[in-house]
Target: CaiB/BaiF CoA transferase family protein
Amino acid sequence: MAGNNMAGNNALPDGGGSPAAAGAALPLDGITVMDLSRALAGPYCTALLGDLGADIIKVESAKGGDSTRSWPPFEDEHSLYFDSTNRNKQSIAVDFYSEQGRTLLWDLAVQADVLVENFRPGVLATMGLDPDRLRLVNPGLVIASVSGFGTVGPLAQAAGLDQVAQGMSGLMSVTGPDADSPTRVGVPVMDIYAGVFTAVGICASLAGRAGNGGEGHQVGTSLLEAGLAVSAFQGQNYLSTGAVPVPQGNNHPVLSPYGVFRTADIPAIIAVGNQAHWQKFCGIIGAPELEEDPRFALGRDRSEHRAELTELIEQKLVHRPGLDWIESFRAAGIPTGPIYTYAQAFEDPQVQALDMVQTVQRLDGSALPLLRGPLSIDGTAAGVRKAPPALGEDTRSVLENLGLDEGQIAGLVEAGIVQEHAVEAARS
Model:
């Protein structure tokens, strides 16, 4: 596959063109993030911060680590679920329930710029990391929390997962073929959006520290808030008119023709977003009568008569292969494209030109083709600087950076307060 730069576990991809590889600073260089999160929302947030140059210290329980390490799909013993959101991070494994372990957690938090967690509200304090106490010692600390349902209300202490939030936010009610078939989105979008929103809040707080005496903020969101936030015009339609949106299948809820259409061989997505596109579209498919038909004169008319219009359009489209139509529409500036499997998506020339996939090497020497982050800085895409870590892979180096000497580290390992990965320990 094109675009697979090879990187060592702790090195940037050779020739990857990342800012760090070229010697340029990334925006969050020098920022240390203590990542106490697990599963997806928090780890997705910290992966984005790592893409931007932050030093991410993933602090995991010595009793198994992040729960997603045991989630399928697997490649040998490696969880690909875990791998997908834990690039560019270090891992230290700590016994959260021991007094010495909690002292280490405190010491890490005191030296961090950002702390990210997604426990239930209040759990952080029970771990000895009360935000108010931490700020007395580290006023600049940004504390970011992701919960299931927020910090107030009857569900504040309830466990929340992505699909629950998809359902409760209304998203599933507008997804699927019809109102009788509410459908979850095929990836955990509530976790992902919550992670993105948290990363935005963290970056805003870091930017604001310079103007408010260097004090950090407490940043928070929840899966439910994220789900409601992305309702966009669907939610606004209900709030303003009282109309309850319903699913439109593969059609755009308010624009037409905009959706999936049959061609001679494959379905194609065609998006006619304005009147100029409509005029061009009618010319390309050889249907000037549609442009002249009063049922389809304006966007509102076309949406109202969507079913009739779709049938007439497909009568034209079925006479040519889908890729031929796509080429013609793209040449006219009309957004269009095929529906890919992931195999086809990764083979697409545009995806390969973006160099989205970079191959890194895990601690055990196995190669991992990994999606880079979606951000570019000064025209250069973020690189994968480090493979997702094995549990406790960086325990020793993190403790050394805290100022512990070899004897102290050995004592903590022997007492089971911290855990090193076997491969890394053998190298020490």
About this structure: The chain has 19 helices and 17 strands.
